[in-house]
Structures are given as C-alpha cells and as structure tokens.
Amino acid sequence: MQFDLVVVGAGAAGLFCAGLAGQRGLRVLVIDHAEKVAEKIRISGGGRCNFTNRDAGPANFISNNPAFCRSALARYSSQDFIALVQKHGIAFHEKHKGQLFCDDSAEQIIRMLLDECEAGGVQRWQPCTVADVRRMETATDAEPAFELDTSRGRVLTARLVIATGGLSIPKIGASDWGLRLAQRFGHAIVEPRPALVPLTFDAQQWAPFSALSGLSLPVVVSTGKGKEKGRFLEDLLFTHRGLSGPAILQISSFWQEGQALQIDLAPEQNLQEQLMGAKSDSKRQLGNVLAALFPQRLAQAWIERLGLNSQRSMPECKDKDLQNLAQQLQAWQLTPNGSEGWRKAEVMRGGVDTRELSSQTMESKRVPGLFFIGEVMDVTGWLGGYNFQWAWASAAACANSL
Ligand code: FDA
Q1: Pocket around ligand 1: residues whose beta carbon is below 6 Å from it?
Q2: Domains of the chain: residue spans and CATH
Q3: pLDDT at 100 over 90
Q4: The model scores a pTM over 0.90
C-alpha cells in the first residue's frame, strides 16, 4: 500500500492533521495501536473536553525552546478551532479563565475529527501496530521516503507524521514509541516528566495534614526562580497522600525534585494585620477568629501544628505567636517527595527537542519528510485547554505545509 502521508497516532493531533491533509487532496492513512481512537479526548475535561482556551498564547506553554510554539499558535488560534466547533454545531460554554468545554460530551469533538477525516477520504487502521520504520535511501521528492512494517502489512509513504502523544495514562494506550523513533533518527529528547499531576509528601511529614483530605480552598502557589518560576492563583485540594486541585496540577509542571513550594493560604489578604487587629477584642478566641477566615478544619490544624490554644482569648495571644501563625499560613513552605506519576498525570513535560524541528511545519531538520506534532514534542501547556490547542495548532502547521 502506498500513501502520500501516514500519521501514527489517532489522537487529537493525529486525527486533526489527517483530516486537514486529506482535504488538501493527499492520500492519508492514520494508524493507532489502540482499539478506540482519541481515548484522551474521551476522558478529558471530566468527559466534556476542555477543547481550547480563548486566551491561549505562547506564555501558557513550557518548553526548553519557549519561542518555538509562537508561529503555530499564531497561525492556528483558538478562534480558528472555535469556528470549526461552531461549524459542527457543537454547543459549548466557558467555565473558568477562558476554558471552553462541550455542553454535552467530549465524544462530540471525537465525532467532529472523524467527520473531518471522512471528508478528506482518510483511511484508518486500528488496532494496528508499527514494528519498524525505515527511511529509504533512494527517497526523492517524487518517491516514497518511508517504509513501515505494520501488523496489517507493508506501507510506503512520502511523509510520516508522529502523533503518538505523551506517556501519561499508559493503560489507555500511551507509549514511548514516538520518542524512541525520534531518538533512532538522531533526535535529542528533553527528559520526559509527569506534569499536571498531584504532588505527594513523605508519610511522616504529611501525617498532620492527612485529616484535611477533601478540603479545598483558593491559594497562591509558587515555585522556582527566574524564567523557571511558576505562580498560580487557583484552588488547592488536600488529599490523603498530598496535594492536588488545579493550583497543584499547574505548579507540578514547574516543580523540580527537591524544590520547595510556597503556598499562600489566604491570597490577597494581610493576615498579620487582621490577627493583630482582632487582639483588642476580649470576647473572641483565637480559634473563632481563625475559623472566620478559613475552613474550620484548616484553622484547627494550623493552631495545633504551632502548639497554640484555640480557646485563648485574643488579648492573651502573644504578638510573636500571631505573627508566626500569619507567616505560616501565608508563606507555607513544603517540599514534595514526588508526584502521583504517569498513572495520574494529565500530560508529559519534555519530549522531542524542538530545536531540531521547523517551527513553521513541525518537520525534522534531520530527516526530511518526518514530522512530529502534539504532545510527543517538548511543548507542554498549562491546565485549561492549552494542550489541546497545541495539538490543533501543531497539526495545522504540519498539514498546511504539505
Ligand atoms: P493523544 O494522546 O491524544 O494521542 C496519541 C495517540 O497515539 C493515541 O491514540 C495512542 O493510542 C496512539 N499511540 C501511542 N503509541 C502508539 C504506537 N506505538 N503505535 C500506534 N499508536 C500509538 N488537555 C486539554 O487541553 N484539555 C483537557 O480538558 C484535558 N484533559 C485531560 C484529561 C486527562 C485525564 C488526560 C490524561 C489528559 C488531558 N488533557 C487535556 C491533555 C490532552 O489529552 C493531550 O495533551 C492531548 O490529547 C495530546 O494530543 P496528542 O494527539 O499529541 O496525543
């Protein structure tokens, strides 16, 4: 079998690229080793798929080569994807900070991508595995460049797109196949790490906080320095093993092993001023004052942690203790011992080093005709629809160059 384009990976980026290329008149084959296409779209956004972010821009992405994503994002913006969603009659709503979700189901986005593929006459093989890929010595512009040994036979193609995604959630089809292939063709890999993932703590260190499991509150969390610094105002969730919630998922993408997190549990407040201001009120006790500012369980946990007495009347509290309490609540420092790993991570940080790829077309600078799109590359979005926007934008940059 011979094609103009073979895409390995029928996920967000792969299906979108295949549909666009097919509609440009190319004979396209998409191969996926999973039974079902686009499993990550299906489970995304709690089943409603946060398919883009209205405000997506280069600042919302992490990469060793931060300028790389600029061109593709500018040429295929969230507005372009919104127009496609509207063309397919999919109803959606904005939930939080520009995040757009389907009103009904993520399945609608999958259906839309499959319809686009059908409109482009794209062939789909799945489940189908690729055992080997060879670049043919004789390759010219007019001749096929790659030979693939697949579980459905030998395939020849002029161009090959790798859209095998990241390493998170192995049980629904994630694999390192794309990364290994990139390496085999001489590409450097930026070390893959789980990102957008809950963070864990040493059991002993976490013991005083595990009773807070299930509690959620808005915080400002930060870590790192200079260009590597991350800072987010979002909700934090206490769990049995550590911390989760949007604030922690966001900061996990910036967190490096051994680094501390700084958490302000009372963002946009001056707690020291509030506590000191309450000192003259002889009718109030420390526990009540704190419980008016924080969830009761959290207030009690911090009072106990610092060995204070919640029933002490405010005038009896020492200035030093109140200052320390405010400091501990507004600049809580703690160092995770790890993360929940690939099993729970929403995305992979790292991947194929983009310095060896064209930012205009996603083509390898080493191997003509070989392209990488989507999460397999070292471009990682924040939480909030940015990762899908990168899948769409990188796929469009590639397909529109063919
Ligand atoms: P994607 O993972 O979509 O597709 C890769 C495809 O390649 C898969 O179909 C896989 O089976 C196939 N494949 C892998 N190895 C192969 C091999 N060796 N041979 C053949 N096929 C192979 N993002 C966002 O913007 N908004 C959101 O709401 C969410 N929510 C979310 C929830 C959860 C639980 C997860 C795990 C992830 C998200 N994401 C997200 C992230 C988003 O799903 C992800 O970034 C994109 O799906 C990446 O698109 P890709 O096409 O690059 O990979």
Answers
A1: 8-14, 31-34, 38, 40, 43-45, 49-50, 129-130, 163-165, 168-169, 173, 175, 177, 346-347, 374-376, 385-388, 391
A2: 2-193+346-401 (3.50.50.60), 198-340 (2.40.30.10)
A3: yes
A4: yes
